[in-house]
Structure formats: C-alpha cells, structure tokens
Amino acid sequence: MLNYDDISKDYLKDIEKFKMLGSLDERNVEAYLKNYALDLHERQTAVTRLYFDKENKLVGFFSLHNDMVKISPHLAAENGWNLLTEEQAYFPSIKLHYLGVDARYRNQGHGTFLIDEVFSIAREIATSSGCNFISVEALHSSVWFYIGQGFKIDNRTDEFYNMLFPLEALDNPDLKETPYLSKKRIQEIRDQINSTFTQSGVNHEEIAASSELSEEILEQIEYGSEVNLEYLQLVCKALNIPFP
C-alpha cells in the first residue's frame, strides 16, 4: 500500500533521488518530474501526485490534465464503445501526461497500483463532469503494460503510441479485458495475415506505409521464429484482421 501527496517544494530532495532506467525514454520521464512537474502543478496545468512506501521513500508518480480525443465511428464500433460518434467527433478525456516508477521499486505491482489510482480519480471526475476516456502517449517500451491495463491503441507516431482507456470499461469488465494470447492463437493470427497477403495481393510496401512498420518487420512477422505482439497488433489493424 502506497501513500500519496501532491507535489510540492517540500519533496524536492525526494524527487532529486528518483531514478528511472538509462534509456532516452526513461530519462525523459525522470527529467519531467525533476524539471517541469512542480511548475506545471503550481500553474494548475498538470496535477502531479507523488507516491511513497511505508518508509516514506518516493516510489512513483503520475501527472494528469484535461484533454479531448477524436474518436471515429469505426474505432468506437470496433471496440464496442457506447458513444454517439455520428453526432460528435471529439470526446472529453483525462490525459495521463506522465507516469513513472523508480527503477529500484519495479516488479512489485506499483505500476498497476498507480494506474488503479488514475482510474479512481477519473471515475470521480466523470461523475461530476462528463468524461469518456483516459488518454496516454505510451512509450514504445511501455505499450504492453498499458494494453495489460485495458488501454487500446488508437495510432502511433515515431515517438509514441496514442492509447485510450474507455471509462465505461470500469463498469463493464468485458471492454477492459485483454485476453492472453497462446502460441497457438498467435500462429493462427500469423496464418491469417499470410492468407490475407496472398488473397488480396497486398504487398509489404503498402502495409508498411499504413502500419508504419518496416518491410523487414513484416517479413519477420510472416516468417520469423519469434514475433513481437505489438507489431502483430498493428499489422492486424492495417489488414482489418481481428486481434487478439
């Protein structure tokens, strides 16, 4: 069980000790906490909560702010979301601006605990002011963490995966569930991808353009001994193949 408090100057020494891993993505999360989070919090632009263990060690944090997300009728129908997309294109959301767990406290369920805290805040906000989603720009290294929490991939850029969590899933577990993919099911999906390539005449270059994956990755999905599930999902999306 972690305890929290809003970020303030009282915690600057704790924040200075906070350490992520050495990748560029993780260093950016650490830099945000140390260089920007307090200022944005004081300006009421993004609210940051700090979470501490029973020894008052800073374990993790997240920052939230208001957002709007564009939802197409196809995306809503594909995911079974109860939205009037014929009447509006943009829907209110809460942006999970940053989330980080100190590298020394990982693999202890703290990331999931922080996400549950975000869900609780979002539910409370939605009861007072309309809100449909939690949005996040997920780093490539964290995509499967968010998928495991029920977030859905909307689209991707060179830096991020834009992902959405429908708040209605908090009361409808079927919308949140991300089924486990067995090796058999993965192979079935790969066979379906290969069959679609053969029957439709679509080539790797065309799919690479629509999925933003390289042709080398597509060949690995078709013929490789191992497969990256993140890439597999993106190819399925490009080919309109159900996933999982």
Describe the structure concisely for a colleague.
It is built from eleven helices and seven strands. It has helices at residues 12-17, 24-35, 37-42, 73-79, 110-128, 143-148, 173-176, 183-200, 204-211, 215-223, 229-239, and strands at residues 3-6, 47-52, 58-70, 90-101, 133-139, 152-156, 160-166.
Could you explain the architecture of this structure?
The chain is α+β, with helices and mostly antiparallel strands. It is built from 11 helices and 7 strands. The chain has helices spanning 12-17, 24-35, 37-42, 73-79, 110-128, 143-148, 173-176, 183-200, 204-211, 215-223, 229-239, and strands spanning 3-6, 47-52, 58-70, 90-101, 133-139, 152-156, 160-166. Strands 1-2-3-4-5-7-6 form a 7-stranded mixed beta sheet, sandwiched between helices. Strand 2 and strand 3 (58-70) form a beta hairpin. Helix 8 (183-200) runs parallel beside helix 11 (229-239). It is globular and about 65 Å long. It starts with a strand and ends in a 5-residue tail after the last helix.
Secondary-structure blueprint:
Elements: E1 3-6, H1 12-17, H2 24-35, H3 37-42, E2 47-52, E3 58-70, H4 73-79, E4 90-101, H5 110-128, E5 133-139, H6 143-148, E6 152-156, E7 160-166, H7 173-176, H8 183-200, H9 204-211, H10 215-223, H11 229-239
Parallel strand pairs: 4-5
Antiparallel strand pairs: 1-2, 2-3, 3-4, 5-7, 6-7
Helix pairs in contact: 8-11
What gyration radius follows from the Cα positions, in whole Å? 20 Å
**How much helicity do the residues have?**
40-55%
Q: Secondary-structure element sequence?
A: EHHHEEHEHEHEEHHHHH
Q: Show unreliable segments.
A: none
User: How many angstroms separate the termini?
Assistant: 33 Å
Output the structural class: alpha+beta
The chain-level mean pLDDT equals 87
